[in-house]
Amino acid sequence: MPDLSNTFVQWLLSQAEGLPAELLREIPGSPAMDRLISAEFASRESAHLRAILDMPEGADRQACTILIPGIMGSLLASTRGISSVLWLNPSLLMGGYLNLLDLDEGGESDASPDVDIVPIGIEKMTYLRMIQTLARHSRLYEFPYDWRKSIFTTAQQLHDAIERWSVASPARRYTFVCHSMGGLVARAYLALYPEEAEQRIERLIMVGVPLQGAAIAALTFNPRLHPFLLVANLHEHNDLVRFSRSLPSVYQLLPPPEDLFSAAAAYPFDWDVYDATAWPATPVRQDFLDSARTLHEAIAGSDPQLPMVNFAGCNRPTVTAVRRSADPDTAYEPSYDESEGSGDEQVPIWSARASNVITYYLEENHNALVSNDNVLADIVAVLRGETPALPTAPPPARAALSRHGSLSLLQQVSEFRERIENGTLSRVDLDRLFFWR
């Protein structure tokens, strides 16, 4: 049985990861909180977070918000058998135990009999500034979820949670604030429960949500092109492709079938991605593809009568298409858009738009959108019924785009492993443990 209770995990549990938003809001001036902020965040981020903590509570606290993070944005822990935080846990990856997170053939239960995995909270090193801002200006409800499972399953759990939260105040209305795949969870809820949504939900605020899916999701099924080869190279037993193939949610991040694709762009694939036999040299699950098609059909067929906005990153090199390759070793290859607009490194700009959604743009990458000052300020503006300050057209690029790193993969893996072992991981390092958020 693997020993996953290393010092990093103990530190993680004892710091902001384990603290609820209400407690964080109540103790902003305490010495313990000051040490926590200094330990977890760089100097510039610490100053920004302290400024949020020092703000007086907004007069609009009567608003209720539900924060839904993106894929990999919720902490997962095994509570029986192997009892440990499994995500986010660098020791899991260093020891070659990534596949403890695999799901079984049905996509609803853990594949390994040694674990019993549940979500235990939102990952706060990324979302703490968002949480603090929402807690200052609303009554905040956090919705961590098991991001491995079908978005349909998560939407049902979201429905049950909202109904439970509404027992004491049936007239209470909520604003969804969603990052990345969290926006698809909210859209699925709106599609599956239109009557309850009309009664319970006031508006939908999205940040970096792939309304038309993300082409990069197709790369997770290719061992040579997986968007995060660093994890695979930390230990030979980390089978990223096996992990990705077992998750219904990954399939649901694919762009919709061509007949449902409504973006103002060329369809991102040159084969039928919803036919498992058409995938070039890559075995995928037909049942999970069918479920993904059903999700896109449900969302496309819904017409929620509520305001919806999406804050989208742009001007960053982004995979906008995946094409078949003549090279039998790779089978298919990504096409990067490095022009102005492009996307946020994960979500193409064409996926940030929909006819019933107002999209606001800024030059930022996918992970950093949730802590960007302009995005946070505009979310507060929307909660107040005001118009966001960000533009509704992509701004000109401020700097030349480049997706090429200066270090080889081998060197990156070596340095990353060294920082895990000596306990000097930074927040930037931890961001690299995510395929996307």
List the helices and strands and how they pair.
Elements: H1 7-14, H2 21-26, H3 31-40, H4 43-54, E1 64-68, E2 74-81, E3 84-87, H5 90-94, E4 115-122, H6 124-137, E5 139-142, H7 151-165, E6 174-179, H8 181-192, H9 194-200, E7 201-207, H10 229-234, H11 240-245, H12 248-252, H13 286-300, E8 308-314, E9 318-324, E10 332-337, E11 358-363, H14 373-383, H15 409-422, H16 427-431
Parallel strand pairs: 1-5, 1-6, 6-7, 7-8, 8-11
Antiparallel strand pairs: 2-3, 2-4, 9-10
Helix pairs in contact: 3-4, 4-6, 7-8, 8-9
How would you characterize this protein structure?
This protein is of the alpha/beta class and 437 residues long. It has one domain (58-431): Rossmann fold (3-Layer(aba) Sandwich). It is 35% helix and 16% strand. It contains 16 helices and eleven strands. It has helices at residues 7-14, 21-26, 31-40, 43-54, 90-94, 124-137, 151-165, 181-192, 194-200, 229-234, 240-245, 248-252, 286-300, 373-383, 409-422, 427-431, and strands at 64-68, 74-81, 84-87, 115-122, 139-142, 174-179, 201-207, 308-314, 318-324, 332-337, 358-363. It has a six-stranded parallel sheet with strand order 5-1-6-7-8-11, sandwiched between helices. Strands 3-2-4 form a three-stranded antiparallel sheet, with no helix packed on it. Strands 9-10 form a two-stranded antiparallel sheet. Strand 9 and strand 10 form a beta hairpin. The model is unreliable at 5-21 and 23-29 (pLDDT under 50).
